[in-house]
Each structure stands twice: as C-alpha cells, then as structure tokens.
Amino acid sequence: MKKLLLFITTTLFITMFAVNSFALEAEVDIHGFISQGYLKTSDYNFFGNTEEGTAQFNEIGLNISTEFTDELRVGAQIFSKDFGSYGDNEVIVDWAFADYRAADWAGVRAGKIKTPHGLYNETRDVDMLRTSVLLPQSVYSEVLRDVNMSMHGVGFYGEFDMASAGSLSYQIIGGTQDVEGDTTSQAMYIMGLSSTSYTTDLQGDEIDVDKKYVVGLVWDTPLDGLRFGFTYDNTELSIKGTVLNTLPTLIPAGSTISADINKLQNIVISLEYTIDDFQIFGEYKRTDKEFDYTITSSGGTLLKQARVEDDTYGWYVGTSYRINDLLVIGAYYSETKGAEEDTTGVTIDPEHRTYLKDTCVSTKFDITDNIIVKLEGHYIQGTEILSAFDQETDNTWSKDEWGMFACKFTYSF
C-alpha cells in the first residue's frame, strides 16, 4: 500500500508540474509504459520461483519533460519493477536532470543522469525498440540494472559532423550513485561470491559508491545504418555484508565481510547494422575488478584479509527481421565467462557455475502503435547468472542445461 501511495503521490506531483508548465506556455511531454510478463524455466529458478511459472515480472514507468527554451530542457522518470526476487515494485526516481545544449557539439546535463553502457542501456526500458523480452545478460545483467542505469552527477555531451567520415557523438559523465534494488544480489555478484550452497551466504548490508565516471562514444559511419559504439566506466565503492551460513573456508556465520573496491571497470565495444527491415548487432564486454577485503568475526576478531584481482567477459551476436507490420522475429547467442574462484579463494564447483551460454529466439507482435506482445524461448548452458538464494533446497546443481520461456505484454503512451 505504501508503494502504491508513493506512486500516486509522485504522479500527482508530475501532473501539477505539467499544469504549471502549461501555465508558463511551455510544451510538456508526458509518456509512460506498463508491462506484464510471465516467466517459466526448467530445472532452475531465474530470479524467483520461475520453475513453477511466475507472473512476478512487471514494469511501470512515467516520465515528463519540457523545454523552457530552445537550449534548456528538464525531465524526470519514476520507475517501478518486479522481477521475481528482485525489485519488489519499489518506486524509484529512475532519472531526473536538467539539460542545456549550447551547440550541436556542446551540451551539459546535471542531476540523476542515464548512463551509456553499450548501445542499448539508455533505452532498455523502451520495450517497443527491441524484439527480445530480455536483453542479452552477458552485457545487460538484470541483477546490475540499477548499478548501470543512472548516476548522480554532471555530464557533457555533443555530436561532431565529420563530413564524409560520418558523425561522432560523445558523453563524459562524472559523479556518484545511490544503488537501489536488491543489495544482497548485487553485493554477491560484484564480490564474486558464487556460492554453491542452497541459500545465500551473504546478506548485503550496504553498498556505498564513492565516485563513478563514464565515457561513451558512438560513430555513425558513412555507410547508412552502420554504427560502432564504445563505452568505458569505472566505479569506486565499498560493500559491507554479513555471512549467514558458514562458508566452505570455515568462516563462521555472523562474520562481516567488508570490501573496498577501487576498480570496478567495464569496457563495452558495440556494432549495429540496419538495412531496411533487417538488423544485425553484437557487443563485447570486459569487466575488471580490484579490491581489498577483510573478514571479521562477530566479536571483532580479524579472520582474513586479502586482495582480489579478477576479470570476466561476455559477448553476444544477434539479428532481427521485420516480416510485416505485425510481426518481427529475432534471435541472439550470448555467452558469459566468470571467475573460477570466489572471493574467499574457493574453487567454484561445478564448473558450469562459472559460465552461461544462451541461445534465444524471439517474436514481437505490434498489435497497435501502443500495444505489443512478445514471445521468447531460451536454451541455456551454464548457471553463472543464477543466484543460489533462488534455488530449491534439494537442488544439487546437477544439470548444466536448462530452458526458459518468457512472454510480455506492454502498453506505452
């Protein structure tokens, strides 16, 4: 009920803002979307009780923007999401910023700013723009959506016309971040605690971001429809969590793990080519982590202190084709390879907990200009992305292959 009241109150605030803007004769754009989906998996749970099938898969967003002058624009979006065990329909301010563009090549934004991460992060909520229900998890992890989506700070952006060489757009953003959502899942994922137990070994108590900076480049080549992208980001943060169950290294329950992460770096290289109704695309992501951590007992005794340096990578290739005004079909292959040892130095076993290979086939039905329906199937090898917390107590990680069906209805305005 509190979340519903918060959503209604925020909506009324945005409406009053729109009325006042109209009184000032400023043109106001109000848009939003609501989606409801269904997920069903075999053998494993994917963020919730998906083995039984779940409708805990929905999103609601409402955004408003207005231009006070030709150069000055302001806007904001509130967002609510339920994704099984993640999100729980918490209403958040997804982004909110003021934007001043003095020239095509020179603009500045301040506030809570959407961040580039590959080609599609800034538009990941715009369901109409893609064929698939889920973006490839090798680059666009649902666990880390809030980490990658936006940040508080100042950003500079613009576009350079390079004549016969095409055009180059850029973004440079610096600032900090409030991490929303499921702190436990994000803390475990960032720290590399890929436990093979049946319940989570770590309760995420806090994630504090000290600073973050992002650079994004997109080159629209002279060949119509072909573009390349490059994004780089680095985050310095600290994580604190409580051990719930005794770890394999005999770290007792009740101990505290604290990590000072001075390097959480992502590099994404992207390609997209669109010709008429056909599109091909692919991206490669590398993540490098360096951090020091300490483990202390519930009584304050130092149990372990160490430094971790590891890297993971992911990539995917995909395609889509519009058959007619109603139907678009698409497919992608996505692969992720994680570390072979967790933060405590324990070898991750079985091996399929360290990788994910996802073959996906999707269909999108454009019922009207505002309503779409999507159907999607996944054949997956590996379990790297799965949380131990979501699995049944009798699950022994015995299978390295599993499947997933997803469908989604979206209305936008």
What do you see in this structure?
This protein is mainly β and 413 residues long. It has a single domain, classed as Porin (Beta Barrel), CATH 2.40.160.10. Helix content is 9%, strand content 55%. It contains 3 helices and 16 strands. The chain has a 16-stranded antiparallel barrel. Strand 6 and strand 7 (167-176) form a beta hairpin. The protein is globular, with a radius of gyration of 22 Å. Residues 1-13 have low confidence and may be disordered.
Integer tally of domains = 1
Strand order in the largest sheet: 1-2-3-4-5-6-7-8-9-10-11-12-13-14-15-16
Subunit arrangement of the protein: single chain
**CATH topology value:** Porin
Tell me the radius of gyration: 22 Å
Terminal-residue CA separation: 25 Å
| CATH class annotation | Mainly Beta
Low-confidence stretches: 1-13
- Helix count? 3
Q: What class would the helix/strand composition place it in?
A: mainly beta
> On the 0-100 scale, what is the average pLDDT?
86
CATH architecture: Beta Barrel
Question: Which terms summarize this structure?
Answer:
single chain; 413 residues; mainly beta; Porin; 16-stranded antiparallel β-barrel; globular
